[in-house]
Amino acid sequence: MSHVIQVLVLLVSLTSMSVSNVRADSTDKTKRVGYLVWSSQEARGHLELALLDGMRDAGYVEGRNLIVDRRYVDRASFDELRAAATELANLKPDAIISTCSPSTTAAKEATSKTGTPVIMAFVSDPVAQGLITSYRHPGANITGLSSQAEDTLPKMLQYLAEVIPPRTRVAILYNASNPAHSRLWQLVRQAAVARGIELIRVDISRTSDLTAAFESIGRERAGALLVLPDDNMTYNSRVELNELLKRQRLPAIFGAREFVDVGGLMSYGPSLTSSYRNVAVYVDKVLRGASPADTPVEQPKQFEFVVNTAAAKALGITFSQALIVSADAIVNEVPASTTSRPVGAAGKREDKSGGM
């Protein structure tokens, strides 16, 4: 009997060593990944750091066993984004990480013949956008994480309604160049009807439209603003956007806490930094041989509600105790000024980017 036990222990030990060796072999070999971003490094550099942290946790360290080919395409057209995706694909990476709906579309096109795996970092409703077949079986060469922005809209309206007077008209900032916003607009309208809230859609397609958009909001006598989530342009212009809100003294809610960190009032949505860190798990799976087509796309399990008490005070808003208790994080500062470029500044390339 003792002999049998010794044999079993030996087999378990050998199996464990084999698995460990496979894992070590896969991370010892240098891997190459492309990183496609329709933004500037200034606006999204912190998300890259979160991704690299996750990669380190998975055993990949840039400069040791990982090569990262970055393409930050700032304030450019989709054709320029498409060209950057093609550049990355031609480098024959082991995978390409895409960071929004348009960059995923561009990467999908660029890898259509090679089948290079594409890992989505944060994409709204990828099934409806035709990027994947289903969440459980994405099909083709794309997997990763979705943002589920479509599920956040009723709660965003609810939180906003709690800090504004009844029958306040709510403006919706809608990026006409964002392929995800058409569906999000339909969903937020349904949520507004259920709550008896009147909405005013304000369209933009480039950063220089923001000033005119706020003039329109004033003419329409809207008393609050909901910025539709999953949008590169508003995210990249979050400092300028909050400056305009301060001037007009408008309460607003956003889909990412980064808006609140630079002076916004409230946000509700999944954590971008957590999502980018979790992307590394998917990259690791693919680098170890998993098929993107059969690797289920992850949907956020938690959403965070963040409030800024200093912004509320500046607007003359008092958060209820219930609202404060329900917050996952509380920010208590409003930046005195912005060092970023002015809205639609002359001589600057305008941001025409679409979805996150």
What labels would you give this structure?
single chain, 356 residues, alpha/beta, Rossmann fold, 2 domains, seven-stranded mixed β-sheet, 13 helices, elongated
Summarize the structure.
This protein is of the alpha/beta class and 356 residues long.
Textual characterization of the structure:
This protein is α/β, with parallel strands linked by helices and 356 residues long. It has two domains: 24-147 and 272-294, 3-Layer(aba) Sandwich (Rossmann fold); 150-270 and 303-331, Rossmann fold. The chain contains 13 helices and twelve strands. The protein has helices spanning 2-28, 41-57, 78-90, 101-110, 153-161, 181-195, 209-219, 232-236, 238-248, 257-261, 272-287, 309-315, 321-326, and strands at 31-37, 66-72, 95-98, 118-123, 142-146, 170-175, 199-204, 224-227, 252-254, 266-269, 304-308, 329-331. The strands form two sheets. A seven-stranded mixed beta sheet has the order 7-6-8-9-10-11-12, sandwiched between helices. It has a five-stranded parallel beta sheet with strand order 2-1-3-4-5, with helices on both faces. Helix 6 links the parallel strand 6 (170-175) and strand 7. Helix 3 crosses helix 4 (101-110) and helix 7 packs parallel to helix 9 (238-248). Residues 7-25 and 338-350 have low confidence and may be disordered.
